[in-house]
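Data deposition worksheet. Section B asks for the primary sequence of the deposited chain exactly as it was used as input, without tags or linkers unless they were present during the calculation. Section C holds the resulting structure in token form. Section D is free text for depositor observations; keep each observation to a single sentence. Incomplete worksheets are returned to the depositor.
Section A, Depositor: J.P.
Section B:
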Amino acid sequence: MAIRGLWLAAAAMFLVGLLWLDQHRGGPASAMSRCNLLLSRNDAPPADVLIVGSSRSGVALDAPAMQIMLKREVPGASVNVERLALGNNPLRVNHALLENYLELRGAPRVVVLEIMFMTQRSVERLQHIGLETTPEHYIFQRDINLMSYGQIMRLPSVAMPFTEDESWLNRLRFRLRGTVLRTGALIYQFARKPGERWDLASCDKSDWTREPSWPASFSFRHGDFDSNMPLAETMASLEQAMSDRAAGMGLKPWQKDVATGGQYPYDFASPYRQGEVALLDSMLEMTAKQNIPVVLLPLPLYGYEVGREDLGQLSARLPDKTQILNVYGQVRGELDKFWYDDGHIEAYPAGALTTAIVARHLLGAGFFVSDTPGDALD
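Section C:
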């Protein structure tokens, strides 16, 4: 009996410790992934603007620069901009991070949410540059390190288009295997570095800007751009910089092999899109429950255009307080010349300009009102 009691006590202690790790740690992850997780779990008040997306948003939207732009336009207003953005199209992880944020930190004034759907070319592109793109990589070797047990069991889909279907068997397989592997990941990470700091204060600027594997020429901006001019003048200056630079630029070699002018295949009703649509719908339901306005950003790959028909279909199924901003469609000048690769635009001047365009939209939508008497937006 005594031995059985010891075993039961040990099992109970193990379970309690595992649940504590689940809420306060994660499995092995890059510094950038871990810092995004900690930002979503922080006990600070919510930001006024929360950007949620993939690395496409990370390059196209500079959160500190947007904060400066908004503060300059609305004197005295409370403006704080934060960004949750991870590479390799982690729609399921961003669902989990947004859930953390809304539950633990509260409701932002507005959420800027990238529609980060995969395409067949997305899969082929990642394979071409040597990244693992199997379902095993996304589902079991990356996502479980940033998701809690509850999220693994609750999330509405597998969401691996072209590689995984949304059958009940696949969802069950993900949930059960994900739970087992998360347990191993938590134990491994704690045993390897039991004293490792898991708090937001341990994240410095480099942790927010780069994955260690990214080439040095790929700039994932975080506060590297500033302007002391009003927003309209800043935008005019950036547009002029694009025009000046474009005059001496040509298309990159890889661009000549990419067909252009095609519509981005959102295909909301297609079977292979079921998982991503389920996650998008669930994220919009979360924000709608807290009455949070959402600005959706369609950020297609190079060579694609966002079709009006697709935007119309999306708009018709959106909840109240959700709107679409085709930010790339509002860039004046030769945007074709300002792509780093076929997934990301160059950070400057194109990324600075897209940041300013979103800031202008947020101002025009009335999300910010000056606290200083006599100051008003145009």
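Section D:
The first strand starts at residue 49 and ends at 54.
The radius of gyration is 22 Å.
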